[in-house]
Amino acid sequence: MTTVWILAHFDDEYCGLPLIDEARAAGAEQLFLYVVDYPSARIRDQRHAETRALLRWLGVEAARVAHVGQGTGAADGALHKALPAAYAALEAALKDVQVERIVCPAWEGGHMDHDMCALLAVTLAVARSSRRGGPPPVEMVSLYNGKDLPAPLFHGARPLDENGPVRRLKLRPRDFFRWMLAVRFFWLQRAWLGLWPTMFWTYWRRGFGVQRLEPARVRERPHAGTLLYERQFHTPYEEVRAAADEFLARPAGRS
């Protein structure tokens, strides 16, 4: 049985490092699937190498890290425009995999690609429902959102109340600082200059937590007010919502 990570971008896994450690300590197989593509081979290869290096350091073999989004047309920042192709790539990658649990970025209105990974995750889980136990559970990790904050401010790794109860993972001080230092694997990514301090401010004050993602949640607005991706990436929620609803209305094959 496998814990499957459905992630948008190379480096998204960094925000779930304690969960990676938890699964490894439990002896669980893990599979990391990345669903967006990049504008050039140079950027794609550089970022893929960074992620592989981090995961190798965490004890994950390179064979368990797959860029399923390459060549699908699911461009970085526009995953909502290629949901059927992304879903087909995920289905192909999981054809012979026994899925025990799925982990994905939170449905939180921070980045449209992250929200679409949550949508894909619950759709895949429902498609794997069994008569005995129902779909495998989907857990989500908060990366960032802008709930109740003016531009340009945002919350780093702060789970939304709208997403339900939080399961907290206990971290020892050495675990916490090991995680902080692991950002070195992404030293070329300038985005961490802003996100890293806000992430660890949240973790220091609130701890690290994950939430269960129920299928009905992805049919709701992440939170009231302007979403972070609306003001930061100028992508209207209505555009993303329309693409999500069109995908959800498709038959089980999502073709």
Strand order of the largest sheet: 3-2-1-4-5-9-8
Shape: globular
Within the CATH hierarchy, at the fold level, what is the topology?
Rossmann fold
Category from helices, strands and their pairing: alpha/beta
The proportion of residues in beta strands is 15-25%
CATH superfamily membership, which one? LmbE-like
Domain count: 1
Strand count, sense and barrel status of the largest sheet are: 7 strands, mixed
Q: How far apart are the first and last residues' alpha carbons, in Å?
A: 27 Å
Description:
The chain has 255 residues and is an alpha/beta fold. The protein has one domain: Rossmann fold, CATH 3.40.50. The chain has helices at 17-25, 41-57, 83-93, 112-127, 173-181, 192-206, 228-232, 237-248, and strands at 2-7, 29-34, 65-67, 99-105, 138-141, 144-145, 155-156, 166-169, 208-212. The protein has a 7-stranded mixed sheet, with helices on both faces. It is globular.
Give the helix/strand layout.
Layout: E1 2-7, H1 17-25, E2 29-34, H2 41-57, E3 65-67, H3 83-93, E4 99-105, H4 112-127, E5 138-141, E6 144-145, E7 155-156, E8 166-169, H5 173-181, H6 192-206, E9 208-212, H7 228-232, H8 237-248
Summarize the structure.
The chain has eight helices and nine strands. It is α/β, with parallel strands linked by helices and 255 residues long.
Tags for this model:
seven-stranded mixed beta sheet; Rossmann fold; globular; 37% helix; alpha/beta; 255 residues; single chain
